[in-house]
Design a protein that fits this description.
Length: 202
């Protein structure tokens, strides 16, 4: 009886060991499966996000992440997609602003060229005006010099005219005096003639 009890206990113990061993193996397999699933559920979405970030960093904004789950990785994927949309919008605005700046720069260049041309034209016209003013100034100075010279000649002629008038007046006086003397001489001659006649009659 004791032997049978011992054998039954050993058999029960062996069975328990077997069950425990099987349970442990099954638990390990299940844990490994769970771990594999968890790793895959993390690795695959993470690879998608990192691959998408790498694509964005290379300058390609045409790709988007396909969202498969609504968990944290799904939210992260959605945020990455929103980032791509925001980058597209920013780049488009930059392109538009660059185009506007290019047009403004071209218009500014045209206006600057026209302004320079107008300034050069005004400078040329100003130089012509200055040359004309200088010529007019020289002509006015020449006229003033000629007028001054003419005034001197007129004054000189006036002085000479006055001197001539004085000479003419003096000559007139001389002629009148000479005429008076001639008259006196005629009277003396007439008297001499009378005296001669009287003498002849005697």
């Amino acid at each position: 009886l004791a032997r049978e009890t011992k054998q039954a206990a050993e058999s029960s113990l062996n069975t328990a060991y077997t069950i425990i061993l099987l349970g442990s193996i099954i638990s390990i397999v299940i844990a490994a499966a769970i771990a594999f699933w968890v790793v895959q559920s993390i690795r695959v979405p993470l690879q998608s996000v990192t691959g998408m970030l790498s694509t964005i960093s290379s300058g390609d904004l045409s790709q988007k992440i396909t969202i498969q789950n609504e968990d944290e990785f799904g939210q992260l994927s959605e945020m990455v997609n929103e980032l791509v949309d925001s980058l597209k919008l920013i780049i488009q605005k930059i392109k538009d602003n660059t185009h506007q700046l290019t047009q403004a720069a071209e218009q500014t260049a045209v206006v600057t060229a026209e302004t320079n041309a107008n300034i050069n034209q005004q400078r040329t016209q100003t130089n012509h005006i200055l040359e004309s003013i200088e010529q007019m100034t020289a002509a006015v100075e020449e006229v003033a010099t000629s007028a001054h010279s003419t005034s001197d000649e007129v004054d000189k002629a006036h002085i000479e005219t006055q001197s001539g008038q004085e000479i003419v007046t003096s000559n007139i006086h001389s002629i009148r005096s000479l005429a008076g003397e001639i008259d006196n001489a005629s009277e003396v001659i007439n008297q001499l003639n009378e005296y001669s006649v009287n003498i002849g009659n005697i």
